[in-house]
Amino acid sequence: SQQGEEDPQALSIQEGENATMNCSYKTSINNLQWYRQNSGRGLVHLILIRSNEREKHSGRLRVTLDTSKKSSSLLITASRAADTASYFCATDAFQGNKLVFGAGTILRVKS
Amino acid sequence: EAQVTQNPRYLITVTGKKLTVTCSQNMNHEYMSWYRQDPGLGLRQIYYSMNVEVTDKGDVPEGYKVSRKEKRNFPLILESPSPNQTSLYFCASSFVRTGNYGYTFGSGTRLTVV
Lengths: 111, 114
What we know:
Structural class of chain A: mainly beta
Number of strands of chain A: 11
Radius of gyration of chain B: 13 Å
Radius of gyration of chain A: 13 Å
Largest sheet of chain B: 7 strands, mixed
Oligomer: heterodimer
Shape of chain A: globular
Largest sheet of chain A: 6 strands, mixed
């Protein structure tokens, strides 16, 4: 079952612009993670934010978490063509031993 | 290099012919898991393992078996594959549960059952 729902489903921007993707979830969480997947390849862990954190940065990535709204956003600043990929949020929700993934946002960065 | 290695990368097989997809990690992770990824359905967990000799079902375990005889290996076994098991499969590993660590994923195995 999918807990996270990403929005938008697809996003197309020009190189240098910022990209924002949103994720909503349904239950209380221990942490929320973002992953990137290049076409048909394995997922790569980008960043993890704990339930008691509100914002986290890693290079050009900025993640926010609002547990009252059960939502998170991923901001990629100064996007590059190499950022073209699918981005997934995943929640660790104290339910069994698994991450539950959303359906993903397809990001296309045009050069 | 820290990694999760899956083999094979691509596999085409016929209905009913037993197959095994191997997964090995070199990070001394306790936790390992198998996911399948299907269009429109996202990633769904098949089985997971908390440590050696400890395995449990995920969301879609029917038609699959796993074993964890060694910490580094977590093979996925399809005893009698069917066309609805055509999918992209990923193995992942992590310290303990997800805890405060992300998963490391393998590169995937694209399986076609005809």
